[in-house]
């Protein structure tokens, strides 16, 4: 007889495992299905984020940053470090261990919260009395039934037409995290989050890195002033970023990859590289879900169609995260997962898309929340802006990293904060204050009048808020 559950979650990434845990906390009998395998073939829940995304990339960024500091910045602190070498295999092994710790942590959380875990691929078999039948294809075949289903199957890397990923020379985010030695020449197509972060890792370790971007502007979604500041820093580091290119034929050979492209001046260029990382976005993962078995509606991109509450067109079936509309961010998926679990329980789950923070974990880091200056101009919103450079921040000077700034945008009449944008040291942590402020509809003056610890990087946030009223104290 089929095992019966109140809620079944298909997918164990950030949206899925969090949804399962929250549903269990609310008193439901919950199961979570996830097919990701570790090297030994065992379960590895956590989705793209934990296995080949957010977590492993941050581990490599940290290792490569230590290497960069030892080679280029220790001397100014009076530290002598000679003949510093990077053992790439050991760096990758450390990354793998960090991933495993997160995988194991999720399995522990399932056990703690009494969530039944099924290791395999979940797909719809059809409707059942009072719910749905879901087939689990793993080491053993199982069928389970659920009154409510939450789909959290995530996304896959988008390949260039005619250039499939072989994860040897042509790499997705997966292959980019498993490179066994520092390539002499590395090419990347796409200057988004993955392109910049992976480009930074291998540039620090000695690779000659070229990033090709089709758009004429750098980081078009980022506030223009912040993007320009970041570009200056990346140029100085030796990260070669070419904008406005048109990629032509790509030849994947035994010794590497040749990329033919036309640059912004209209000149034909041939770029030979040992490895090519393609990071041109991601596509919703609905392959094998058997959506047609229950009449589940997909859009032209293959994403599951949902309303504002993450309800699909099929009663009792919900979808969250990368597989639906909205930003493909792990923390957005988590918030939707919690909200859906609470809605199933008759509560009023809430996700505010206007206060979802964005972060790029390069050095300098880039973080923002809310609208950019160019968006406010396009919308005809009257605003005031205030900026403060890390150059004038005491803690940044002590750290030896004074690149970048904090920028506030506030309503010209009410002073309500409309957007906060940062580039500089540890801004991935600083942005949370801005998110809290915007959730509570704070004004720039509210932040300006809050006491911030001295010396701290957070003082740059206070000073930028003061700058909205043209009254900075330290610049």
From TrEMBL:
What cofactors does this protein use? FAD
Highest taxon listed in the record's lineage: Bacteria
Other facts noted in the record for this chain: The active site is a redox-active disulfide bond.
- Give the source species: Limnohabitans radicicola
Ranges for domain Pyridine nucleotide-disulphide oxidoreductase dimerisation: 356-465
Can you tell me which residues form the catalytic site? 454
Q: Which GO terms describe its biological process?
A: 2-oxoglutarate metabolic process
Q: What is this protein called?
A: Dihydrolipoyl dehydrogenase
Residues reported in the UniProt entry to bind FAD: 58, 122, 153-155, 322, 328-331
Q: List the disulfide bonds.
A: 49-54
UniProt keyword Protein biosynthesis present: no
Q: Which residues form the FAD/NAD(P)-binding domain?
A: 5-337
Q: Which UniProt keywords apply?
A: Cytoplasm, FAD, Flavoprotein, NAD, Nucleotide-binding, Oxidoreductase, Redox-active center
E.C. number, please? 1.8.1.4
Q: Which family does it belong to?
A: Belongs to the class-I pyridine nucleotide-disulfide oxidoreductase family.
Cell location: Cytoplasm
InterPro entries from the UniProt entry: Class-I_Pyr_Nuc-Dis_Oxidored (IPR050151), FAD/NAD-bd_sf (IPR036188), FAD/NAD-binding_dom (IPR023753), FAD/NAD-linked_Rdtase_dimer_sf (IPR016156), Lipoamide_DH (IPR006258), Pyr_nuc-diS_OxRdtase (IPR001100), Pyr_nucl-diS_OxRdtase_dimer (IPR004099)
Per the entry, the cofactor note is:
Binds 1 FAD per subunit.
* Gene3D superfamilies (UniProt xref): 3.30.390.30, FAD/NAD(P)-binding domain
> What catalytic activity does the UniProt entry give for this protein?
N(6)-[(R)-dihydrolipoyl]-L-lysyl-[protein] + NAD(+) = N(6)-[(R)-lipoyl]-L-lysyl-[protein] + NADH + H(+)
One annotated Gene Ontology cellular component of this protein: cytoplasm
Q: Name one GO molecular function term.
A: flavin adenine dinucleotide binding
Q: What is its main location?
A: cytoplasm
């Amino acid at each position: 007889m089929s095992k019966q559950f109140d809620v079944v979650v298909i997918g164990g990434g950030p949206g899925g495992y969090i949804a399962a845990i929250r549903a269990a906390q609310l008193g439901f009998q919950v199961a979570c299905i996830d097919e990701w395998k570790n090297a030994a073939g065992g379960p590895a829940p956590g989705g793209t984020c934990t296995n080949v995304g957010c977590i492993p990339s941050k581990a490599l960024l940290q290792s490569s940053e230590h290497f960069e500091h030892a080679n280029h910045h220790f001397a100014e602190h009076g530290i002598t470090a000679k003949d510093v070498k990077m053992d790439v295999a050991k760096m990758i092994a450390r990354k793998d261990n960090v991933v495993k710790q997160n995988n194991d942590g999720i399995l522990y959380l399932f056990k703690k919260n009494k969530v039944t875990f099924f290791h395999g691929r979940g797909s719809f078999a059809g409707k059942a009395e009072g719910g749905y039948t879901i087939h689990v294809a793993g080491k053993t075949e199982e069928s389970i039934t659920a009154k409510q289903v939450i789909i959290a199957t995530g996304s896959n890397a988008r390949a260039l037409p005619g250039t499939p990923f072989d994860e040897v020379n042509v790499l997705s985010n997966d292959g980019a995290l498993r490179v066994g030695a520092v390539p002499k020449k590395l090419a990347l197509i796409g200057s988004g989050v993955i392109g910049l972060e992976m480009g930074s890792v291998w540039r620090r370790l000695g690779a000659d890195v070229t990033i090709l971007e089709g758009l004429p502007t750098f980081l078009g979604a980022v506030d223009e002033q912040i993007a320009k500041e970041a570009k200056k820093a990346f140029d100085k580091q030796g990260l070669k970023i070419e904008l406005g290119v048109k990629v032509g034929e790509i030849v994947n050979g035994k010794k590497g990859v040749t990329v033919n492209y036309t640059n912004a001046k209209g000149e034909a260029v041939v770029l030979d590289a040992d490895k090519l990382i393609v990071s041109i976005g991601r596509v919703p993962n609905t392959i094998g879900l058997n959506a047609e078995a229950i009449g589940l509606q997909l859009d032209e991109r293959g994403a599951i169609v949902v309303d504002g509450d993450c309800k699909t067109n099929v009663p009792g079936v919900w979808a969250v995260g990368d597989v639906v509309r909205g930003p493909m961010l792990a923390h957005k998926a988590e918030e939707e997962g919690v909200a859906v679990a609470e809605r199933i329980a008759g509560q009023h789950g809430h996700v505010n898309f206007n206060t979802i923070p964005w972060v790029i974990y390069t050095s300098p880091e880039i973080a923002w929340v809310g609208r950019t200056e160019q968006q406010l101009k396009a919308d005809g919103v009257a605003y005031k802006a205030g900026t403060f450079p890390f150059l004038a921040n005491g803690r940044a000077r002590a750290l030896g990293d004074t690149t970048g700034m904090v920028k506030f945008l506030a309503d010209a009449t009410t002073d309500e904060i409309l957007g906060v944008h940062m580039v500089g040291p540890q801004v991935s942590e600083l942005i949370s204050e801005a998110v809290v402020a915007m959730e509570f509809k704070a004004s720039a003056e509210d932040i300006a009048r809050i006491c911030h610890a001295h010396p701290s990087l957070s003082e740059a946030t206070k000073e930028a808020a003061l700058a909205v009223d043209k009254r900075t104290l330290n610049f």
